[in-house]
Amino acid sequence: MKKVLKIDIVSDVVCPWCTIGYKRLERAISELGIEDQVEIEWQPFELNPSMPAEGQNVQEHLTEKYGSTAKQLKESQKHMVDAGAELGFTFDYFDEMRMANTFEAHILLEYAKAFNKQTELKMRLTTAFFSERKDVSKKEVLKEALLDVGLNADEALAKLDNDDARYEVRSNQDYWKNLGVNSVPTIVFNRKSAVTGAQPVDVFKQVLTELLYEK
Predict the structure, then answer these.
(1) What is the pTM (predicted TM-score) of this model?
(2) Where are the domains of the chain?
(3) Residue 13 and residue 44 in contact, taking contact as beta carbons nearer than 8 Å
(4) Cβ(41)–Cβ(7) under 8 Å?
(5) What pLDDT does residue 131 have?
(6) pLDDT the model gives residue 172
(7) Taken in order 15, 144, 107, 195, is the CA torsion positive or negative?
């Protein structure tokens, strides 16, 4: 029987390197032909847990958070645009782009897990934010994403006001933070080993090969 590798990806919907990291991991899995030997589960991490409902201009936010200059920001964005393009993903940065609160998106990703639609919804939300200039904290955007991946939008959106569902996401966030995860993406293999950051495809291939075929 083939060995199956459990992969937990701790990430946020509005994290560009999480998207690049996942797309590189996906390519590594595809090139190795091991799609049937991996099981991916997305775990919640908020880059900006105190982000207000109205969000914040991305440039203003990154200047406040990291001290980035406008020039550094443009260079960083160009780097991400190029990295995304190599992987078939579009990063469409624009001056009025706003960082969004993602807590409710994480509740919906938890809901999607039961239907084996987590990865599909994750990428739909990420695409909405980075490629389509949409605010992923808005109910109508969340609803559209749910419908696009074939989920029951009314049932899913009801979870946003459910105390147990909210508590579950908070608990999951705390679990990974308490394990020392403080940057994303953090990609965890069989809950034993991890790599952080958007590693090159070849690095992921090496890690996957070692874990699947270790004696």
Answers:
(1) 0.95
(2) 5-213
(3) no
(4) yes
(5) 98
(6) 98
(7) negative
Instruction: Please state, rounded to an integer, the average pLDDT across all residues of the chain.
Output: 96
The residue with tokens 């049932």 is 155
Distances (CA, A) of 60 to 55, 85, 133, 178, 185: 11, 25, 17, 30, 23
How far apart are the C-alpha atoms of 5 and 16, rounded to whole Å?
25
Instruction: Report the distance separating Cα 196 and Cα 183, nearest Å.
Output: 7
Q: Quick one: which of 39, 41, 141, 64 has its CA closest to 100?
A: 141
186 DSSP β-pair partners: 10, 196
Average pLDDT over residues 31-56: 96
Helical segments of 33-187, H only: 58-66, 70-86, 103-113, 118-131, 139-148, 153-158, 163-178
Chosen CATH of 5-213 out of 3.30.1070.10, 3.30.1490.20, 1.10.150.530, 3.40.30.10:
3.40.30.10
Give the span between the Cα atoms of 17 and 198, in whole angstroms. 6
Burial class (CB within 10 angstroms; exposed 0-12, middle 13-18, buried 19+) of 33 = exposed
∠ CA(203), CA(207), CA(210), 5° rounding? Answer: 135
- b/e burial code for range 179-206 (CB count within 10 A of at least 16 → b): eebeebbbbbbeeeebbbebbebeebbe
pLDDT value, residue 215: 58
Do 91 and 77 form a contact (C-beta atoms < 8 A)?
yes
